[in-house]
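Lecture notes, continued. The same structure-token format from the folding unit now serves as the input rather than the output. Read the line below as a description of shape only.
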């Protein structure tokens, strides 16, 4: 059974996790996330796909039950899951997942891939081209055969905790932390935001070589990327000005840019990302 536990029971289990780190809590449960995706598709849930069985998820289950004439008990049991439709019948781990597959298992897979640093855009329960690229990239990263099939080996690898930074880094801006690494809507926010006034200095989080300094038309605006040791790269986006050039060496704490709102930004802030051998990891694991 994919989801026998009551949402109240899951809330109790979540409370037991309170001693874990914030990064661990932010990952949530892939099975709960899959249920949230299915509820979103049914129009019963409009919250964040975060894998946390909170009041919003419980209310969505009850709303679906009322709509389908079921007993309104907040339990996502067999009858409630059937009410979601046949597309959502597959439990996680019940089959190898391939291109074109859809269901609860695919939604759980997308959530796990995003938590491990390989987001595929929207977590929507459909194994389309973007999800296939994310799956293959993760398989390469994990040293698996990149066959695009989420079979037992891939699912075993995804049981490991997400990677953390192998080194400590300096805070890149004297500013408070805004949005953190983790779910945002049904997507992953892949970095940490530092809201600050335009023109606030941005400094290198560690020593390294500037791999890119220029304008990114994909949404990051003025962007600096620094290559560090251990396959680590740091990204500094939405800058109002870049103060270093591609190929230059930088020291930890050296000024490399100024806070701005270029690219897809609603206001001045620094968007700071951390990639380890291509996997997005929580920057707060390094700062």
């Amino acid at each position: 059974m994919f989801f026998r536990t009551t949402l109240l029971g899951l809330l109790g289990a979540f409370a037991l996790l309170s001693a874990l780190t914030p990064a661990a809590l932010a990952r949530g449960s892939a099975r709960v996330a899959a249920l949230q995706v299915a509820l979103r598709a049914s129009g019963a849930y409009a919250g964040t796909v975060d894998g946390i069985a909170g009041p919003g998820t419980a209310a969505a289950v009850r709303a679906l039950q009322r709509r389908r004439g079921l007993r309104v008990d907040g339990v996502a049991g067999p009858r409630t899951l059937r009410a979601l439709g046949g597309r959502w019948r597959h439990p996680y781990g019940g089959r190898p997942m391939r291109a074109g597959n859809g269901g609860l298992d695919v939604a759980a897979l997308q959530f796990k891939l995003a938590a491990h640093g390989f987001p595929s855009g929207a977590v929507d329960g459909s194994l389309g081209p973007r999800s296939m690229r994310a799956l293959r990239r993760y398989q390469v990263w994990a040293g698996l055969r990149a066959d695009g099939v989420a079979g037992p080996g891939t699912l075993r690898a995804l049981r490991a905790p997400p990677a953390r930074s192998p080194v400590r880094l300096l805070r890149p801006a004297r500013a408070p932390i805004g949005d953190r690494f983790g779910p945002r809507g049904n997507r992953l926010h892949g970095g940490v935001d530092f809201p600050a006034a335009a023109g606030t200095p941005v400094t290198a989080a560690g020593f390294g070589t500037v791999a890119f300094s220029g304008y990114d038309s994909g949404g990051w605006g003025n962007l600096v990327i620094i290559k560090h040791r251990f396959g680590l790269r740091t990204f500094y986006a939405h800058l109002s000005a870049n103060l270093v050039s591609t190929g230059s060496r930088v020291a930890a704490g050296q000024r490399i840019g100024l806070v701005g709102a270029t690219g897809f930004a609603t206001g001045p802030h620094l968007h700071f990302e951390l990639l380890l051998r291509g996997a997005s990891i929580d920057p707060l694991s390094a700062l």
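Point for the exam: Residues 81 and 259 are 47 Å apart (CA to CA).
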